[in-house]
Design brief:
alpha/beta; ten-stranded mixed sheet; about 700 residues
Length: about 700
């Protein structure tokens, strides 16, 4: 039955310890895959079957048309059922990850109704879903097993959530591909998730999405802020109507454990599969790492989590890695540089996400006014006040607003941010991407309590005057399904507690040191200081309290640095050159160079960089994006196809390369033509021409223009 599988030597090399264990106790290792993992809360495991008619695994019964329709609404908005919450969560997570417009390819080139062979299908996938908690942090694990799963040719795909999303956070990416290819899909929220604690009402979210009193939920809460009741009451007295979020306020720095949670999701998947398909002989595992293809996958933070897992995989659970735009923070290695085309080599690569994001967070509101950005899509939050405040603080030296904006943009680009990212950044500033990342990750890395109000920030809903107010009851009831885990989200905003006019929504607030409505430059400078260890205002090292905070954040960042050692696992990174969230020079390009340096000829990593592609495919349906950018998701799916063929049939992986795509452009009548695969989306070349090859040569990562 497995004649097309390749010998084990083509898979992950075993380390010495597992080989010794295998020799000493083969029976124990064989049966362990059928035993319930010790890290699973057995009482938390739930199981549901979805028939593929009324409900399904991939789209909660909505199908392609349902995902393009208005959001499903609960029959009772104040008391949604678990099934309604699941359907709404899948709807929102699927749509957040891909361009869901028909003209952009949804329902034609990708989507629930497009089968693994690229042909139209029914779009509804029947099968089982198993949900559980792991660890003291109540990390969510979910395994979906489609009815098409073949226990004689088993495969597992990991799908840790992207961003700070919940358990269904990779449903439209790795989940979609895995289910269509008959693989079990192992999801995890990786300790982030949509755990939101309403501190005013003391309500939390359970693993099934329902909202209950924190005391009633107890250990069934996705997240409860580590505050005593007295501390919470004092907090509410000082700052009413606020929320704590799991990623920011768990005080656990969950990112350091993302890889471990992915490995646990794989282990849980083996247990589920052996329980389901081996009931007649539970003492002898039928489905094991030795006969199962396991691909570590997902996008963004989920992709980074799978890379962490691959680096930490000393048991040989993972056979290959295929990730898109992964959030990796490579250890800095000064022994190589990065050069694109004929540009100057970049030696200061591998900056952390927190480092370059907090720099952008300081300068972007002014840079939005740069000449090249004035026509950028969704450039709705430029700030001449920010330019003036930066100038007054000696951080910009030119005099006119236009000159200051261009200077701010140059400072950003001099930090290793590609010019191809510039036209995308204004939209991300408008939707609060760098602001939300900077606040959440500062709290997470430093393990600060929500009661600390780090740099004067908090999370809460606002009223018409942009001051803190209760979140509506209907919005609170569906937070599990609508929130992405990192405010601003689902009606919960970033609040500037320090605004002289009283606490206000961050972007409309006033900075105390400037007296200007400069979108809280003071807060941004405080967050930046936690990346540099210096007070931006004076250029001097901070006082002891702030410097201790900087050390805490620095230590947290050190905990999430990846080493570049994939243990020779075949690996594919796919990244868009215009990614304005995860800068390629500091993530994928830097990781590729580090891996080549660490593994040398043993490396089996491939890096595919796609032109005219950015991080948030969902924006591609927006005017100003649709004519300029193509879906990176299309190449992520190709990378999974390539990896699966490589592991199953030993098909060679194409060399690292730049894929030069063609934007859709604008027709003579002002419309944007439909995305067409043949016209706009060249395939990853099996044998790329020399001019397109990405190389590591003479201590340089060489990226063709």
């Amino acid at each position: 039955m497995m004649s097309d599988r390749q010998p084990r030597y083509q898979r992950v090399p075993k380390t010495i310890l597992p080989l010794i264990l295998l020799a000493l106790a083969p029976a124990a290792l064989a049966t362990s895959w059928s035993s319930p993992p010790a890290f699973i809360n057995q009482a938390s495991i739930t199981q549901h079957y979805y028939d593929g008619i009324n409900d399904d695994l991939a789209s909660a019964g909505l199908g392609s048309e349902g995902l393009q329709a208005p959001a499903p609404t609960p029959a009772d908005p104040l008391n949604p059922t678990t099934a309604e919450l699941r359907r709404l969560a899948i709807y929102n997570n699927y749509r957040a990850l891909v361009d869901f417009s028909s003209s952009g390819g949804f329902g034609r080139l990708y989507g629930p109704n497009i089968n693994a062979d690229g042909k139209p299908g029914q779009g509804l996938i029947s099968g089982y879903e198993f949900l559980a908690f792991t660890g003291k942090q109540n990390v969510g694990l979910l395994v979906q097993v489609p009815d098409s799963f073949n226990p004689d040719e088993p495969c597992i795909v990991t799908a840790p959530s992207s961003g700070s999303r919940g358990i269904y956070g990779a449903i439209g990416t790795a989940g979609d591909w895995g289910l269509k290819n008959g693989c079990a899909v192992a999801y995890t929220d990786a300790g982030k998730g949509t755990g939101a604690h309403n501190l005013q009402n003391n309500t939390v979210i359970r693993i099934d999405g329902t909202v209950v009193d924190a005391d009633v939920a107890g250990n069934d809460s996705l997240f409860s802020a580590p505050l005593t009741n007295a501390q919470r009451l004092h907090f509410n007295e000082q700052t009413p109507h606020r929320f704590a979020f799991k990623h920011a306020h768990s005080q656990k720095n969950p990112e350091r454990d993302w890889g471990r949670y992915v490995l646990r999701s794989i282990r849980f998947a083996f247990y589920v599969l052996n329980t389901k398909y081996n009931n007649d002989n539970p003492s002898n595992a039928r489905i094991t790492p030795n006969n199962t293809i396991v691909i570590a996958s997902s996008v963004s933070n989920g992709g980074g989590a799978s890379v962490q897992a691959a680096e930490q995989d000393y048991r040989g659970l993972i056979d290959g890695v295929a990730v898109s735009e992964p959030n990796v923070n490579p250890r800095f290695n000064p022994n190589f540089s990065i050069v694109q085309g004929d540009s100057k080599p970049l030696f200061k690569h591998s900056r952390s996400l927190y480092d370059y994001t907090t720099l952008i967070n300081v300068y972007q509101s002014c840079a939005n006014l740069a000449a090249e950005n004035l026509t950028a899509a969704l450039n709705f939050a430029p700030s001449s006040d920010a330019c003036a405040s930066l100038h007054d603080k000696g951080m910009l030296h030119t005099t006119s607003v236009a000159e200051q904006a261009n200077e701010a943009q140059q400072i950003i680009n001099d930090y290793g941010i590609l010019p191809e990212q510039n036209n995308v950044q204004p939209s991300h500033w408008f939707i609060n991407v760098p602001q939300g990342i900077a606040v959440t990750y500062a709290n997470a890395y430093g393990r600060f309590s929500v009661a600390r109000h780090l740099c004067g920030y908090s999370f809460g809903a606002v009223n018409g005057e942009n001051t803190p107010a209760p979140l509506t009851d209907t919005s609170a009831a569906i937070l599990f399904a609508t929130a992405n885990g990192i405010p601003p989200t689902a009606g919960i905003q970033l609040i500037n507690n320090n605004s002289p006019l009283g606490a206000q929504e961050n972007r409309v607030s006033v900075s105390p040191s400037t007296g200007r409505a400069d979108q809280n430059l003071d807060g941004a400078l405080c967050l930046r200081g936690l990346a540099t260890g210096f007070s931006i205002h004076s250029g001097n090292r901070w006082d002891k309290k702030h410097f201790r905070d900087y050390i805490r954040v620095k230590f947290g960042i050190r905990q999430v640095r990846v080493k570049g050692n994939l243990h020779s696992k075949p690996t594919i990174f796919v990244t868009g050159r215009s990614d304005a969230i995860l800068a390629p020079n500091h993530t994928s390009r830097a990781y590729f160079g580090l891996n080549q340096w660490v593994e040398g000829k043993r490396s089996n990593m491939r890096y595919y960089e796609v032109t005219n592609a950015q991080h948030l495919d969902v924006l591609n349906s927006v005017a100003g994006f649709s004519d300029k950018f193509i879906p990176l998701h299309h190449y992520f799916l190709q990378s999974l196809d390539l990896m699966y063929a490589h592991l199953k049939h030993a098909t060679a992986l194409p060399e690292s390369q730049v894929i030069h795509t063609r934007p859709r452009g604008i027709n003579g009548d002002g419309t944007v033509p439909d995305l067409d695969e043949a016209t706009h989306l060249p395939r990853i070349a099996p044998t790329p021409p020399t001019r397109d090859k990405i190389l590591f040569s003479q201590q340089q990562v060489r990226i063709p223009d």
